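Quick one, T. Sequence first:
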Amino acid sequence: TISAAKSATGVEIRPYMRLIDVQDQLDEAIRLNVSMFRSINADTRSRIENIMADAIVNRRNKKYVTKALSEALGISQRRARNAAGDQLHKLNVALTSIRNQELGISKFKWVTRGDGKVRPLHVTYGGKIFRWDKPPEDGLPGFPINCRCTARSVFGSDD
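C-alpha cells:
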C-alpha cells in the first residue's frame, strides 16, 4: 500500500503515481531542458534535474524552485529566479503537450505576450496553429531560453 511504501522509504509516492503514465516523457523533457545550462558538471546537472522533477511532481511554486536552485547551485536569487521561471515554463508546456496528445488534441495556437520583448520570429508565429508533434523550427512555445510564449489547445473537427 501507499502508506507501507512511505513507512519503508520515507518517500511520499502518491504524487508520482499521478504522473506515472508520462514519467518517461517528463524525465526526457527535464533532461533536455537542463542540458541548456552551460558549464555545469554531471553532479550539478543531476541536482537540477532532481529539483525540477520534484517541482513538477509535487507542484512546487517558482519561489520554492528559486530557493532550491539558489542553494544547490550557489547562485544569486536573481539568477535562480530567472532559471526557475524558464525551467518551470518549459516543463509546463511539455506536460501540456503530452496530456493534449494523450487526449487526441493534436493542435495548439501560438500565443505571444504581445509586447516589445517578443522575439521577431515568435511575432510571426503569434496566432498561428501548429501541431504538437510538428512544432516550428525552434520548438514549442516557451522552449527557447526565456521565451514567454504559451500554447493554447485547439479543438478542431479532426481532434
